[in-house]
């Protein structure tokens, strides 16, 4: 069953007086707790968009130089993407997610997990 069918079954078929309030309470109550899955999917989707944006920028640069310089421009953009990946591996993940756990408050910038050390699950990376 889909999420919509489950909410319909719970709220509308149980003769609730206000179906919209029941739907809101059902979704907020965590009966369908897939917010972490949605956040993970959105993070991966946004990362893919940013990566493809780099390819689009490479095409823009290739179109604005002479043919003899296209190879150099493509290499520059490839090295830029590789440098960004290495930079994220070294400090980006730590700044984004380092120091977050369930017991302490989230900090503005992470202070742990540099170079992906002590990361509980490398599959998240």
In short:
Helix content is 61%, strand content 0%. It has helices at 3-11, 19-28, 35-63, 70-97.
Describe what you observe in this structure.
The structure is a single chain. The protein has about 120 residues and is mainly alpha-helical. The chain is about 60% helix and about 0% strand. α1 packs across α2 and α3 runs antiparallel to α4. The longest helix is centred in the middle third of the chain and has 29 residues. The chain is flat, with a radius of gyration of 23 Å. The model has no long low-confidence stretch (mean pLDDT about 80).
Structure characteristics:
single chain; 125 residues; mainly alpha; 4 helices
Give the overall silhouette: flat
Question: Could you estimate the helical fraction of the residues in percent?
Answer: 55-70%
* String of helices and strands: HHHH
Largest sheet: none
Estimate the mean pLDDT confidence.
79
Question: Secondary structure elements and their pairing?
Answer:
Layout: H1 3-11, H2 19-28, H3 35-63, H4 70-97
């Amino acid at each position: 069953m889909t999420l919509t069918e489950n909410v319909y079954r719970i709220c509308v078929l149980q003769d609730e007086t206000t179906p919209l309030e029941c739907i809101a309470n059902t979704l907020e109550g965590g009966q369908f707790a897939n917010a972490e899955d949605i956040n993970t999917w959105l993070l991966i989707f946004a990362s893919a968009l940013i990566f493809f944006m780099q390819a689009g920028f490479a095409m823009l640069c290739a179109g604005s130089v002479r043919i003899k310089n296209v190879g150099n421009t493509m290499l520059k953009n490839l090295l830029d993407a590789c440098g960004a990946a290495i930079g994220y591996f070294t400090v980006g993940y730590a700044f984004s997610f380092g120091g977050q756990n369930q017991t302490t408050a989230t900090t503005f910038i992470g202070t742990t997990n540099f170079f992906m050390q002590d990361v509980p699950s490398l599959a998240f990376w």
